[in-house]
Amino acid sequence: MRGGRRLFPLLLLALLRGLCHGREPAPGAVTCGSVLKLLNTRHSVRLHSHEVKYGSGSGQQSVTGVEASDDANSYWRIRGKSDGSCQRGTPVKCGQAIRLTHVNTGKNLHTHHFPSPLSNNQEVSAFGDDGEGDDLDIWTVQCSGTYWEREDAVRFKHVGTEVFLSITGEQYGHPIRGQREVHGMPAANHHNYWKAMEGVFIKPSVDPAKHDEL
Amino acid sequence: VLSDEEKRKQYDAYGEEGLKDGHQSSHGDIFSHFFGDFGFMFGGNPRQQDRNIPRGSDIIVDLEVTLEEVYSGNFVEVVRNKPVARQAPGKRKCNCRQEMRTTQLGPGRFQMTQEVVCDECPNVKLVNEERTLEVEIEPGVRDGMEYPFIGEGEPHVDGEPGDLRFRIKVLKHPVFERRGDDLYTNVTISLVEALTGFEMDISHLDGHKVHVARDKITKPGAKLWKKGEGLPNFDNNNIKGSLIITFDVEFPKEQLTPEQREGECSELPRAGKNLAQLIQGL
Fold first, then answer.
1. What is the domain extent for residue A137?
2. What does UniProt give as the signal peptide span (chain A) (predicted)?
3. Closest partner residue to B32 among A75, A175, A200, by Cβ?
């Protein structure tokens, strides 16, 4: 009996410790700092950018959809807003505002009131320098549930112009033959679903400062 | 931004030409398509000496680390999901290249054309696979240092995959500033503490306390060196830099009352001097 009384608080301590350190929140969630490719589920192409500027509209760096799954120019980095709010390893919540930075050129996914060249929707470009652009680089992740899970198809809604990142299938000719136009459209439909595919996903981590010794 | 005049004209016009699919002749397209691929591939890997084995692109991932992690070290787990070439039934075209073909149109009349010539290889398909990688943040690591993972970059169906490189980016710290292996911090003390001395503990990056004690006068801007309380040296973790504390003196915000000027303040030293005499002595 005496041993039992001493054991119980120890077990409780171990259980609470386990809850703090042993379990990660949302193990399948996309986290800040991760680098990934996004697949448009309706058209099976990946979000892509490259050092090719639009010939019309804003003249900024173009953003397209490509069929290849092994193109390094399709990698985008997930970051919070410029206030440093999303630390490395923090799972992204549904409804959270993020920026997507193109890894190879350092420009952010961006949209503004310019018409897109093929479909006359809203032009989506890559803008900024070394990861810093402006307030039109911010998108909210729309999904059901608490966190953006890698398995889920999510939407990206632009903060500022309220359009959804979409592809409707229009294709460019030379010199980027076969690449699809990526644009913003106001309607939420099956053209604006995206899924995380290949990438380097930083595992969700608990902030160590939140779990002081009991 | 293109310096090639012909390419610039093409890029400027592609928006309108997009709807006219199949309008262009084929040779120019294929050539620029492959040229773009090879140009990028070799650009991403300047060290490659052997141009015979094609290589996939390298991926550079910025890894943000805190000064706490630079002090104590840490491990970061990542999941790498990447396309891997797997055998598939049938054959495919590989090692495609441009060759010049000379065809005879008639006696003494020849035509040279560019042709795409390919070999036949076993068919491969790209399948996504996942594995967990662990990146170690070593104590003392510096901004810009890289941790490579060979072969974890982009695959190349005709050759080797590129590498995955984690590049360390050290974040700014609210309390400590890093200069090499030394740490700099500012501490504000009151006017009385500056004149009469003080004792305090400073919390370091791993939580341990650095004890500071002064019994002499501390002037504003005075620096205190604490050897061994800086960051560990990357090459030899047993050697640590120094912690340099700069003291700032906080002067009273409101003007002194007549009583205080006469030395009625009870916080002054036991020596019996009033405030005016003390300041005159300085």
1. 33-200
2. 1-22
3. A175
